[in-house]
Design brief:
By secondary structure, the chain is an alpha/beta fold. It contains 10 helices and 13 strands. Strands 2-3-1-4-5-6-7 form a 7-stranded mixed sheet, with helices on both faces. Strands 8-9 form a two-stranded antiparallel ribbon. A two-stranded antiparallel ribbon has the order 10-11. It starts with about 25 loop residues before the first strand and ends in a 23-residue tail after the last strand.
Amino acid sequence: MLGRIQVNNLNLIQGELPSVENYFLFVGRGAGTNEGKLVTMSQETNLDAVLGAADSNLKTQIQAARLNAGQNWFACVIPLAVDATWEDAVDFAMERTSVEAIVVTDPVTASTDVEDMQAKAEAIMATYMRPVFIVGCSRKPLVTETWAEFQDVLRAITANVAADQVSLVATLWGPEVGAYAGRLANRSVTVADSPMRVATGPLVGEWSDRPEDKDGLILDMSVLDALDKARWSVPQWYPDYPGVYWGDGNVLDVPGGDYQVIENLRVVQKAMRRVYPLAVARIADRRLNSSPASIAAAKTYFMRPLRGMSRSRKILGLVFPGEIEPPKDADIAIVWMSKYSVEIWLTARPYNSPKAITNNILLDLTNYG
């Protein structure tokens, strides 16, 4: 036998995992420019050049999105041709890019539209292994409608609909769905932060003039509360506190479901995106086996995304928590279903976050003299 030397380059999958968070796809009727094309954009993009000089709802929503997203905003858009559907445009885009969310700027008009959005999100997951959520919107109130009539129209759309990957926005001023998408894509916060977060700042744009219904009644919080209870996402304000903010990012999950608010869905979908390539890299790799040493190593390996998402930062004594709590040993379980099939169970645990705060003030009249 002759002596031989072989040098192998071993890939331990230690690099950065892909990230598409905060990168959204916008789809809607445009003004005749770049119809059917996938166009990327940033804060510097000339919207008139990309979407046409004429006004369109699509351009209005994208302008609102980038105003509210702040620094380092990037997105992509497909202006729809007259005979095109948003579903076809999404299929076209999925062959060319990956996004966290899809924003459909043309209004939904029936519950079947919402169910189509849920079906498309599930089809994308089944085909591309890409978790996405879809954001839809309503039409504006008609000049012939009262607030009560408008609420009835919107309630009928969401009634009895179960769609845990769809978030709907009520259109009252006009640019709501864009502002909501921008607030979600704002990089000063994380996917674990609710769009309700007041410290993120008020909505950017023209929100001080409240719309009126056909009887001249100005929009008030009772209307917004009713729409929120019907699972529409809406802006809101606080008495004697300047600015207009946002309420919950409602998701059309079933009562008692885990994904009734958008931040819970985003956290889990982010973990799904990061664990997927790690699982692919271990297919038919005998380093992953049922021995105690391998199980221990596999737990460390597959917990890597959760550890990354849990990192907190402390500055000047203030702790900025990670997206989830640091994972514990019990938060992962590896179960061998057969000699060639293994199941890995991971638990992501979001932090508590107050959305209702009650202050109780007591008066002490004790005489300490």
